[in-house]
Amino acid sequence: MSAPEATGERPKHNPLTETLFKGLSLSAALLVLATLGAIIAMLVVGAWPALQKFGFFRFLVTAEWNPVTETFGALTPIYGTLVTSAIAIIIGLPVSFGIALFITELCPVWLKRPVSTAIELLAAIPSIIYGMWGLFIFAPFFSETIQPWLTDTLGQVPVIGALFDGPPIGVSVFTAGIILAIMIIPFISSVMRDVFETVPRELRESAYGLGCTTWEVMWKVVLPLTRAGVVGAVMLGLGRALGETMAVTFVIGNSHDFNIGLFWPGNSIASTIANEFTEADGEIYTASLIALGLVLFMITFIVLSLARLMLARMAKTYGGKS
Amino acid sequence: MNLYARRKFINAFNLTASVLTTLFGLFFLAWILWVLFARGFAGLDLSLFTQDMPGPGSEGGGLRNAIVGSLLITLAGILLGAPVGILSGIYLSEYGRGTWLAATVRFVSDILLSAPSIVIGVFVYAIMVAPLGGFSGWAGAVALAIIALPVILRTTEDMMLLVPDTMREAAAALGAPRWKVILSVVLRAARSGVLTGVLLAVARIAGETAPLLFTALNNQFFSLDMSKPMANLPVTIFNFAMGPYDNWHDLAWAGSLLITLVVLGLNVITRAFLRGKKQ
């Protein structure tokens, strides 16, 4: 390529191109906002007939779900969603903390990258694969080994024993919770690892210099400093668990009967929509399913917003990236 | 036990637990991959790619129509989502840097990134399937584009911010207008990173099932018409896994293995690349 001859004149630029390009990128950014706005608007409009008929509060606390009499209440799916997510967090939080601790403090340098990549790959596996594995492999395994053991031990304890009750068929609220735990572990542990690594090296080294053990450095120095980030990480995982659809649909059993026992088949908001949306006939049925979607979206929106706020607060303190 | 022994014991106990939790996580990865290979590898032969889905009760068959449908829907989804994602990423890193609008867009995009994909499926059903009177490959593509958008936006912004401001200033000092600085200098420097973001988005949407259930639906037959219901791998796996026939189950496992290999492969490549870039 030969260089153009120097003429001493400045190249001419059309200011219109600049305006157009700026406008184009601005409208793309506005489209992102509009998408969220449109999703919320559509959910409210679509759910309106059901909310009008049943009332928002009564819709939330009614357990009956009967397409024949067109009586719909969201209690069973909401209970299923909250309980599966709670199980996922109860199992996933300590495990994720352990993994983050291992990667930031214990792991030899050469092993760091392979281990964190492998854990993050768990998050990359599509949820339908978790569903297949859960239904055909994990659920039978669980009902034959772990479930009888839990029923014989925790099931005999008064009060909480009622939770560990149900038929030994493998598909249950509890199985769904365990699979969700495995799915959210990579999210929580990788955010935790990132926030742990923002703690300045001097602080750890001073603690070690005072004679702290590795665990004490973690528990009394690193964790108190990164509390906001850790809560953010857990909220992020919770947001994932609440909205997860396919893996739950495979193993939760899809039953609309309300049961306290965790080994009974149940339902979650997402799995109810996935199973029934295409079959729903009649305005009220469809509107009720959309109303379920609205409830789910509201819950995840609040949880995810809190997660982002926590992580932003964390990033402000240490200049780390959320 | 004296104080020192107790502290040492607590330390040893908790650190052992930490190693065990890591093994616990890795164990599930290994278990899932092992099951996929054990059950799906036998089905991964030529007929999988050359024959269409078998009907209920018929023997053999493959997944050709589902594989082609998935490729088309994913490609269309990326072609719709990538321009918007890249342009809005440009807005965040260049024009809107530091403004409240950019902060809001980033926040909303982060919400969309983790929003339940089933709700996005319902949304696209309401805006495209119901008014246009039918399920279509295009509706599936739009749903996937909404999921791909925040992934691409985030990576584009991150990658463009890695380009030093001195390069922007140098180009501006040579008299280049802003759009030219962005397109010919910043975007060119960040090109491979932006492309990585697009690949990451492909990996994210290739296995998505929930948003396709009521948009693209499924189709038992081979079809290239994006305005009609379209076969796709994830929904086919779902239907076949729930079905009663053994050859359906075998095909579902083979399809699962195929999707997982593609998605994990893309992830390993892009992650290795992004990590090199950020250091």
Helices, strands, pairings?
The complex is a heterodimer of chains A (322) and B (279).
Chain A (H helix, E strand, L loop, with lengths): L14 H40 L1 H6 L3 E2 L4 E2 L2 H32 L2 H16 L2 H26 L20 H24 L4 H9 L4 H12 L1 H17 L2 H6 L17 H8 L6 H36 L4
Antiparallel strand pairs in A: 1-2
Chain B lengths: L2 H38 L5 H5 L13 H32 L4 H15 L2 H16 L4 H25 L3 H9 L4 H12 L1 H16 L3 H4 L19 H10 L3 H33 L1
Helix pairs in contact in B: 1-12, 3-6, 3-9, 4-6, 5-6, 6-9, 7-8, 9-12, 11-12
Summarize this entry quickly.
Chain A has helices at 15-54, 56-61, 75-106, 109-124, 127-152, 173-196, 201-209, 214-225, 227-243, 246-251, 269-276, 283-318; strands spanning 65-66, 71-72.
Low-confidence stretches of chain A: none
Strand order of the largest sheet of chain A: 1-2
Gross morphology of chain A is flat
| Portion in beta strands of chain A | under 5%
The ordered H/E elements of chain A are: HHEEHHHHHHHHHH
Domain tally of chain A: 1
- Number of E-state strands of chain A: 2
| Alpha-beta content class of chain A | mainly alpha
The number of distinct helices of chain B, counting runs of at least 4 residues, comes to 12
Question: Keywords for this structure?
Answer:
heterodimer, A: 322 residues, mainly alpha, MetI-like fold, two-stranded antiparallel sheet, 12 helices, 72% helix, flat, B: 279 residues, globular
